[in-house]
From TrEMBL:
Entry protein name: Transposase
Pfam family, one: TnpB_IS66
Domain of life: Bacteria
InterPro entries (alphabetical): Transposase_IS66_Orf2 (IPR008878)
Amino acid sequence: MQDSLPSRHVHTQSRCPSEIADMIEWTHSTPIYLHRNPVDFRKAINGLSVIVRDIMELDVYQPALFVFCNRRRDQIKVLYWDYTGFALWQKRLEKDKFKWPKKNSFDTVSITHEQWSWLLRGVDFEKIQPHQTLKYSHVA
């Protein structure tokens, strides 16, 4: 009897984004760039590399993560160069959508690793407002 692939709705032990980062060896200094516009997810390494070079106007060989989302915003792909070849990582949500940056005048959005972690968890990082930074010159 041949083994079959698990159903899309089988729950397995999940890994947190930091564990995923450790698995594919990027660091907190690695830049993360989101391509704001949706991408045809039939594109693979070559097609996404062309988007990085021609539309995002970035060096695809730099140590960075290039993140793409499909039109339904239920899948993301991450392209990166690891000095031996390209790698492509993909995540599909079974429910819900990724909170993708709203349309603005830029095709490329640079995000922090904290924002990346929030994005993977479904947090709309554009709506998060930290407390105002206070600067005092003396204590009364």
